[in-house]
Amino acid sequence: MRPGNKQRSRVWEHFKKNADKSTVTCLNCRTDFKFYGNTTNLKEHLKRKHPTLIAIPSASNDPDTDLQNIDSLDNLSNVQLPSTSSNVQNHSLTSAQSCIPAKRSPDYQPLSIVENVGFLEYTKKLQPLYTPPSRKLLTTKLLPGQYDIILSKLKYMLKNENDVSVTTDMWTSDSTKSYLTVTCHFIYDDYLYSPVISTKEVHGSHTEFLQVIKTCQANVEHFKHSSFATDKLQEFQKQMGLPELKVKQDVNTRWNSNLIMIEMLIKIKDPLSAAISSLRRDPNGLTAIEWDIIADCVKILKPFESMTSELSGEK
Q1: Can you give the chain as a three-state secondary structure string?
Q2: Considering the chain, what is the average pLDDT of its residues?
Q3: Rounded to an integer, what distance in angstroms lies between the CA atom of residue 200 and that of residue 181?
Q4: Cα–Cα distance between 315 and 312 in angstroms, integer?
Q5: Cβ distance 186 to 163 under 8 Å?
Q6: Is the dihedral of CA 54, 59, 60, 65 positive or negative?
């Protein structure tokens, strides 16, 4: 083997690359597979279908498990890489494992660890000749480079996928900052992949909606238990030439009951506000900003209600 040449994986004893450079064929069963830079799916095929033919080396000894470098991305046709300077900050595929089925939980560390004295001593003991990259190199070159690679792989994998599920998660890192993460889930070559698509800071308190809901519930409960308040509401509805509608109480066991409650409040907004202002012992009415919040919430929740009705139907 010539110096500097990469060791060839034993997997290639059982596969051949096709002329299009994006697919390979199993020499044992003539099955075609997509190829996007590593042999993970090829090795799994051998393990499942031809387990007696080859002893697959461990990932640490197999050179083809390494991520492809940027120069080898030519095989990924029709992939346009975004500018990393504007996208790395707003979009996040957290690590190489984002496009590889997880075998164990990764040990995430902040970038500042490369400046930690204990970590530097640790790496020096492991390999005296190795110098860890600086924090600046990580943020300006290495991570953007990895981002481009994984983004390109993800685009290639999703190019022909018809079914993708999306989930979101929100958390608070400290008393002042909240974050929202969007993750997509899809099956590719019999594996479930769950790459992080984006993580962004959410400005403002994400508990604000729960506070508005409490105000809505207080108003509804007041009109539910006070016949005088209900009469006032109907009186103003008649004066405004509007249909006589009643408030709707939400139910804890039904997720869409909040939607039903705030939808009705929006329908009777004007007579309800007038009735509340005329009561001697009136509950705290919704402010203009709170009315805007529940109006926006209806727009967001309505598609989920339609989807729930569709999926729970008999046909």
Answers
A1: CCCCCCCCCHHHHCEEECCCCCEEEECCCCCEEECCCCCHHHHHHHHHHCCCCCCCCCCCCCHHHCCCCHHHHHHCCCCCCCCHHHHCCCECCCCHHHHCCCCCCCCCCCHHHHHCHHHHHHHHHHCCCCCCCCHHHHHHHHHHHHHHHHHHHHHHHHCCCCCCEEEEEEEECCCCCEEEEEEEEEEECCEEECCEEEEEEECCCCCHHHHHHHHHHHHHHHHHHCHHHHHHHHHHHHHCCCCCCCCCCCCCCCCCHHHHHHHHHHHCHHHHHHHHHHCCCCCCCCCHHHHHHHHHHHHHHHHHHHHHHHHHCCC
A2: 77
A3: 7
A4: 9
A5: yes
A6: positive
Task: Name the one residue in this structure whose structure tokens are 């007041």.
Answer: 222
Question: CA distances (Å), 246 to each of 14, 146, 237, in order?
Answer: 72, 57, 10
CA distance 88 to 92: 7
pLDDT of res. 79? 38
Mean pLDDT along residues 101-106: 46
Largest CA distance in the chain: 93
Buried b (16+ CB within 10 A) or exposed e, 245-267: eebbebeeeeebebbbbbbbbee
The 10s digit of each residue's pLDDT in 207-254 is 677 888 889 999 999 999 899 999 999 999 999 999 999 999 888 777
